[in-house]
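Figure 6 in text form: structure in, sequence out.
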């Protein structure tokens, strides 16, 4: 379900890009989780699993994103 790598430039909607630019990682994770739930659905029991996956993805993105200099 989740890709294991990203090659090339990153892309996000304007709201998510603003979260990234502002360093609002928790907000980004919660927005991604809400959008994922709207599109794919999951049970309340599964929510901690998906939240943890998005948190990990965003942590890795934060560590590896190349910002403009």
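Output sequence:
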């Amino acid at each position: 379900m989740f890709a294991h790598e990203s090659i090339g430039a990153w892309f996000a909607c304007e709201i998510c890009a603003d979260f990234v630019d502002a360093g609002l990682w928790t907000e980004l994770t919660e927005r991604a989780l809400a959008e994922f739930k709207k599109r794919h659905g999951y049970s309340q029991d599964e929510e901690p699993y998906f939240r943890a996956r998005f948190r990990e993805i965003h942590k890795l993105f934060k560590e590896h994103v190349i910002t403009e200099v």
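Caption detail: The longest helix spans residues 47-64.
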